[in-house]
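Project channel, design review

CF: Before we commit to the Sphingobacterium litopenaei constructs, I'd like one complete example in the thread so the newer folks can see what an input/output pair looks like. Taking GntR family transcriptional regulator.
RD: sounds good, go ahead.
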Amino acid sequence: MDFNPNKAIYLQIVDHICENILLGKLPIDSKLPSVRELAIEIAVNPNTVMRTYDFLQQQGIISNKRGVGFFVTPDSFSQIKKYKKEIFVKEDLPQVFKNIYLLDISLEELKERYDAFINENYKSN
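CF: and here is what came back for GntR family transcriptional regulator:
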């Protein structure tokens, strides 16, 4: 895993795990690698992985079955979307709004571009 120096490593691992859940690579009720296994796999300190798992558990994305390991929760999709939406609205959207204002992009143009993007990337033909 390549890490971005501008973001905490444990949060980058959180993003990676969330993406794998949303993509179905980690299905509901699937077991995550142990703390030690994941630490070795991505070459980080086990404490960093434990911090990642603690964070994901606090968000309701994974749960710990004592003595067995960490598992993806049935509610993980909605919890991930809730978590990601909060970050987007607080951190990313203000910058987007600033650029829209500075570049004098109308709401009509923005809607047209958004609709075109959805049609090109997410609607099946």
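RD: helpful, thanks. The first helix runs from residue 9 to 22.
CF: The chain is about 60% helix and 5% strand.
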